[in-house]
Design goal:
This protein has 293 residues and is mainly alpha-helical. The protein is built from nine helices and six strands. Strands 1-3-2 form a three-stranded antiparallel sheet. A three-stranded antiparallel sheet has the order 4-5-6, sandwiched between helices.
Length: 293
């Protein structure tokens, strides 16, 4: 650990709604396990016109976001029938809907709900408290309005707080532990403190850029854009990472085995605060400069 710092009314044990970091750290992570055990394949079709690979790489053609319903069943029925906005595999369009569908496919493949699979297969082996449905709202950073300890995303809330695109709560230290497990797998390293969760070849496959024209996406993870990335201008372009709408991010530099976790609740008290757009690249540039000195 190079720097572990808390600012404002939070501390090392504060749980943040990490929003779309759920996508790589839970849904893609569990999908990787299903790929490893053969219960899921990249060419499997969660619905007749879409493959797992297209969902993971945000190339499904589904819309980015829309309100889908008031209950879990209604959300899943709606996304299963949602018209596509482009042909599958042709356009990179970041889609919460795609990961809602993918989450349901992962649950079917593993034979257990996302929250149970994550707790048993990832959180427990790593000894982290990252979880869906946190028990103690007072331990969580507030998000928008009066929300605290309840997922911010409306579709995830309609689904009961557990979805493929959002729902995880975590501390910065625990997100770091999850990143460590991914990097260790990418390098093919295992130890008593970092158990092997995925096959090296699987992680390397997931972190390979997709073949979609103009896309920065891998399978479940993003890469820094050539310019204007939230990772700043100094972070290696072969890095991988992801953002969360609530003000969270994780950027990893796999070859050098280093990563930056940034958890904020920038949507508190309102999502109108967009200063995070300037802060994210600035802090990553500062960190990259310091590490390279």
């Amino acid at each position: 650990m190079v720097l572990d710092h808390a600012a404002g009314a939070c501390g090392p044990q504060t749980l943040f709604d990490i929003a779309s970091l759920t996508k790589p750290l839970a849904t893609a992570a569990l999908a990787a396990m299903a790929l490893d055990d053969g219960s899921l394949t990249l060419d499997a079709r969660p619905r007749p016109d879409l493959t797992v690979a297209q969902l993971l790489s945000h190339a499904s053609g589904l819309p980015a976001w829309k309100l889908l319903g008031a209950t879990r069943d209604e959300v899943l029925r709606t996304v299963a029938a949602e018209p596509l906005e482009s042909a599958p595999g042709t356009v990179a369009r970041y889609s919460d809907l795609g990961f809602i569908l993918l989450g349901a496919a992962v649950e079917a493949a593993l034979g257990e709900p996302l929250e149970a699979a994550f707790a048993r297969r990832i959180a427990a082996p790593l000894g982290v408290g990252t979880t869906f449905l946190p028990r103690d709202a007072a331990a969580c950073a507030p998000t928008e309005g009066q929300l605290r300890g309840v997922v911010h995303d409306e579709n995830a809330r309609a689904m009961g707080g557990v979805a493929g695109h959002a729902g995880l709560f975590s501390t910065a230290r625990d997100v770091s532990a999850l990143a460590h497990a991914w990097v260790a797998a990418w390098h093919g390293v295992r130890s008593a403190t970092v158990p092997k969760l995925w096959a090296r070849a699987t992680v390397q496959k997931l972190w390979t850029p997709s073949a979609v024209p103009g896309s920065t996406w891998c399978y479940g993870w993003d890469r820094p854009a050539a310019r204007g990335s939230s990772a700043g201008e100094r972070w290696p372009r072969d890095g991988v990472g992801h953002l969360g709408f609530t003000g969270c991010s994780l950027w990893i530099d796999p070859p050098r085995a280093r990563w930056v976790v940034l958890l904020t609740n920038r949507v508190h008290p309102t999502r109108a605060n967009e200063a995070i757009k300037q802060f994210r690249p600035a802090i990553h540039d500062a960190i990259a400069l310091a590490l390279d000195d």
